[in-house]
Design a protein that fits this description.
Strand content: over 45%
CATH architecture of the largest domain: Beta Barrel
Radius of gyration: 23 Å
CATH class of the largest domain: Mainly Beta
Distance between the termini: 54 Å
Length: 271
């Protein structure tokens, strides 16, 4: 009789345990009581499965969202008198589906003496959640030669990025990009491009995030030295739909003045 009761108990226990394992977003709250079914993996949640603290950045989204981002940037370059300032307007479409990100960037360039459409960039990236606090993102991209200049060809890029959320408020990140350059030039030797970066980020509130990063980039022009840049970005979540980003970068260890500023505003269409 005892064995029979024990067997029944084990069957019931296993059934309940199996039901509790049905946790689509893996936040520790079973789907049967999870009010927020698509919580980002690294978010801390309450007993109903909803985020309690950390701001979700655009690149960390996992849900079926479409973000439309409009940006305007201004770059300053003392090396060229006829191109001291370069304006860049851009529209960016990012679609997030589970752990995948599909992106399209179309831009328009304008200097003191010319204007043209910038190269169009298509990319696909995927998140890999190593554990609760570490996320790896990898992807590939293609740059289509819509910018009209002689020798402009299709280029390919490979992306890697690692985010480590040390605490609820503080994170560190690092990554790199390697680009296969197919452009050609009669005046300069052109080769492939690589860059690496690392930085720190801080969640100032549930609506505000800021980071500071250092990057080093090899130019496609072989005769140029590595380009070292110090950058900062501020992200502000206006409401559930609207958000803004402000970025500033400045080349360091350089005798000339090279800097850029970028302002973005985005709208999120959530399914």
């Amino acid at each position: 009789m005892m064995i029979r009761y024990l067997s029944i108990y084990l069957i019931v226990f296993n059934f309940i345990y199996a039901q509790n394992l049905q946790d689509y977003d893996m936040d520790g709250v079973p789907d049967t009581i999870d009010v927020c079914s698509y919580t980002p993996f690294f978010d801390k949640v309450d007993k109903y499965g909803c985020s309690t603290k950390r701001l979700v950045l655009p690149e960390d989204k996992d849900n079926h969202n479409l973000d439309v981002i409009f940006s305007y940037g201004l770059a300053h370059n003392d090396d060229s008198k006829d191109r001291e300032e370069l304006d860049k307007s851009e529209i960016e479409l990012n679609y997030y589906k589970n752990s995948w990100i599909y992106s399209l960037k179309i831009g328009y360039l304008k200097s003191n003496s010319w204007s043209d459409i910038d190269d169009t960039i298509l990319s696909i990236k995927r998140h890999f959640q190593i554990n609760q606090d570490i996320r790896l993102t990898t992807g590939i991209g293609i740059k289509l030669p819509t910018h009209d200049f002689e020798g402009n060809e299709v280029d390919y890029s490979f992306y890697e990025n690692l985010n480590y959320y040390i605490t609820d408020d503080f994170s560190i990140f690092l990554g790199g990009v390697y680009s296969i350059i197919n452009d050609n030039s009669k005046e300069s030797s052109i080769g492939n491009v690589y860059s690496y970066y690392f930085g720190i980020g801080y969640f100032l509130s549930k609506n505000l995030y800021a980071n500071l990063s250092y990057s080093s980039t090899k130019s496609k022009f072989s005769e140029q030295q590595l380009i070292d840049t110090l950058s900062s970005t501020i992200f502000y979540q206006i409401d559930e739909k609207w958000f803004t980003l402000f970025g500033y970068s400045n080349e360091i260890l350089d005798d000339d003045f090279h800097n850029s500023i970028d302002c973005k505003i985005g709208y999120s269409f959530a399914n």
